Amino acid sequence: MTIMVHASGIRGYLEVMQDLNFDPEPLLAQHNITLDQLKQDDAWLCQRSVINLFEQTAAIAQCPDLGLRVSRHQDISVLGVLGIILQSASSIRGVIEYTSDFMFLHGPGLVMSLNQPSPLFEDAAEVIFEIQINGYAPQRQTIDNCLGTTHRILKWLAAENYELKAVSLPHKPIAAISEYQRFFGAPILVNQERAALHLHRRTLESQPHSSNPALREIAQDYITRHFRNPAEMVSSSVRKALRIHLATPRADKIRIAAMLGLHPRTLQRKLASEGTSFDEIKDEIRKELALQYLWETKIPMSQLANILGFSEQSALSRATKRWFGRSPKEVRNAKGQLSI
């Protein structure tokens, strides 16, 4: 199944290309994206094509901070009807929860979740952003863009109550870290387990300046009556929980089932009815992350084994042999050569 995303998600791309005096049409054609589509916010684009377009454009146009530059042109209006709901939430926590519940309206491959407390700051929560696609694709620019736009939207909603303690990147940026620090106004932590904004808990409980409960009820009622969230599948909830706790002892079936309020056997049955299993989901996440870190970072194998929740480095080696027929080092050296 092709995962799609609204064209509003790359609003600003053409403006950045104009600023760089770079003709984007050949690259757009290469990725089967038309200029007309980019001018229609509600047009659906293949998410993998958008991800690849961003990466290739950044390289050819020599614009290593492309994702951040594009996000400067984006605001809450890129989210369409979801943006209306967010503006009516009673707290910033509510904004994040509504985004988590209804992000599928903007793109089913985009996932936001809230982890509290942050594993890095006791007085903060972790707003996690994940991009789910079929197979592997470099996501550095798209992750930067998603974090940048989320930061801008939350900062606008929270106004003077916005306190960003740090930003976690699951890669080392190509652009200078100082560019990121200027954009976010906070410390930048590279080669982290996941992409996230670490917000002070005071920000979570603050009220958005545009709060309107009546508007929220109208918009939410419309969405729940007309749309079904694919993330309601148990497998999606398991994936989200595993992604947060993968590097901890909590990433087992019994604990994840408890987090979801299910008996382990009930969880197993529900996953089976969706054509998968707990172990399959966990293995799939590990495989995706292994490629991401081997190809987009230079972190030591011992650190990667820990991120993936392996008890020892030899377990990582056995897993990569099973997934790719090669050792972790061989996979890293074969970037762009493996057919995944």
Question: How confident is the prediction overall: mean pLDDT?
Answer: 90
In the sheet with the most strands, the strands line up as: 3-4-7-5-6
User: The CATH topology of the largest domain is what?
Assistant: H-NOX domain
Estimate the helix proportion, in percent. Answer: 40-55%
- What is the overall silhouette? globular
**CA-based gyration radius:** 20 Å
Order of helices and strands: EHHHEHHHHEEHEHEEHHHHHHHHH
- Given the helix and strand composition, which structural class is it? alpha+beta
GO molecular function, one term: DNA-binding transcription factor activity
InterPro entries: AraC-type_N, Homeodomain-like_sf, HTH_AraC
Protein name: AraC family transcriptional regulator
Keywords: DNA-binding, Transcription, Transcription regulation
Describe the structure.
- The protein has 340 residues and is an alpha+beta fold.
- It has helices at 13-19, 25-30, 35-38, 47-60, 66-71, 81-87, 92-102, 140-158, 177-184, 201-205, 213-226, 234-245, 253-259, 264-273, 278-296, 301-307, 313-324, 328-333, and strands at 4-6, 44-46, 110-115, 124-131, 164-168, 188-189, 195-200.
- The strands form 2 sheets. A 5-stranded mixed beta sheet has the order 3-4-7-5-6. A two-stranded antiparallel sheet has the order 1-2.
- Helix 12 crosses helix 15 (278-296).
- It is globular.
- The protein starts with a strand and ends in a 7-residue tail after the last helix.
